[in-house]
Amino acid sequence: MSIFRMTDEESVRFRQITVLGVRRNVRGVAVEEARRQLQRISPYGSFQALPELVPGACEPYSVPPTGEAALSYRGLPYDLLEDLLPLSGAWKQTMPFLMPREDVATGRPITPLHGGHVGLLCTAGLLNGVFGQGDDRHIARWRSVKHVTTFVEEDGDEQIIHHRERWANELRLVYADGRTLKLTETPAKQEGEDDAECAPETRAA
Amino acid sequence: MQNAHLRLGLLEYRRMTEKTSTRIRLRVDRYVGEDEQAHLISVFGNDSDVGAITAAVHEKATFTLTFPDGEVKEVSLGEHASCYKGAVSLADRKHPVRHLVAVSEQLYTNGGVGRAILLQYQRDQAWATLVSFLGLPAEPSWAEHVLGVVELEERIKALDGIGCQPVLISVTTEEMLEWIGDGLRSQALAFPEKNGPIAWPKCF
Fold first, then answer.
1. ipTM above 0.90, yes or no
2. Which residues from A are below 8 Å from B195, CB to CB?
3. Which of A129, A138, A130 is nearest to A173 (CA)?
């Protein structure tokens, strides 16, 4: 360990020194020797007794070679996240708006279906498929459609716009000979009514 | 896959008030948009940033979106947007990464009013999706013919996308039924030989 006094005016004013040494783990006698050396320079007058810090005051220290520098990335792992995000709950909730719905039920019921069962299954879209014989062979597809009826009510000088929503079941058929048919429980649209299909069956439930 | 950073976009939200200035940047893994109208934005990040973007979506804020190729656009989800949140847990992290998917009102009613937005256009998947959204009585093997007509009619428009190649198909149920009927009459389409349910291929 080498100790030097600094010669700059400000350094002299505050009795600043420089301690140069090689850091290593020391124990026992070496620790005591280092402590004694520091205590020797602690008295007030000992500052001037120290050698000046000038170029060449001590032997140059050659920096030992180190291993290759390892760069580490501490941000989000994009590659991993790109693979995991499609499994997140947010995507599962969004999928019905972008992907087709699996709406065909197959299997044999435990008990024979009565008319009410069939009606419920039809309107739920679970009995879509090919039906009929001969000229009446057709493909049937049920779905639920939201209709919005808009009408304006006059209240003095003010106009109150009402939007009335209702859900209806709709059956579309296409026959083998090319005929198509749309069956609904609601009457055909009247002139002046502002009806619109607003949501596909995925949001019907 | 590797090099995901080359495929991700960047969503930036700035808000200036008298006393504070907020600037939030999140990575975008999926985006669907039509000019300035965003239809779907999927972003991920920490809890507070994702929360701030959620609030901004509900406030109908405008975002600056940077595409992977460097193109920059100002986009907004508009009124009545919906937000869906999720979380992805990583093994070496204390807190999960938050995930937000924001959906425009138009995408929420996808398939209605003669507009269907698809994440990508592959005939089999596109046909299954259209049949489901429009409620068409149809068969999987009809995809080639009917979508051929849709392409001829130039009803398919490419949309802006990140992480997907979205398209907008402008077609109504009545038009599709008409084309199906024409196909059956001209025998370009074959009617199924057996009665029963129709099996559709799984799309995901």
1. no
2. 129-132, 137
3. A138
Predicted TM-score of the model (pTM): 0.73
DSSP, collapsed to helix, strand or coil, labels residue B202 as coil
Helix axes B143-152, B123-134, angle to 10 degrees: 90
Interchain CB contact of A73 with B (< 8 Å): no
What distance in Å separates residue B135's CA from the closest CA in chain A? 6
Tens digits of residue pLDDT in B70-126: 999 999 999 999 999 999 999 888 899 999 999 999 999 898 888 999 999 999 899
Q: CB-based contact (8 Å) between A75 and chain B?
A: no
Q: Which string of DSSP letters, residue by residue, matches A67-120?
A: --------S--HHHHHHHGGGSHHHHHHGGGTS-------S--SS---HHHHHH
Residues 51 through 80 of chain B touching chain A, CB cutoff 8 Å: none
Listed as ranges, residues in chain B with pLDDT below 70 are 203-204
Report the residue of A73, A74, A87, A94 to disrupt the B interface, i.e. the one with the largest count of B CBs within 10 Å. A94
Task: Give dist(CA B189, CA A139) in Å, integer.
Answer: 13
Query: Strand locations in B78-197, DSSP E?
Result: 82-88, 97-103, 115-118, 156-158, 160-162, 167-170
CB contact under 8 A, A82 and B8: yes
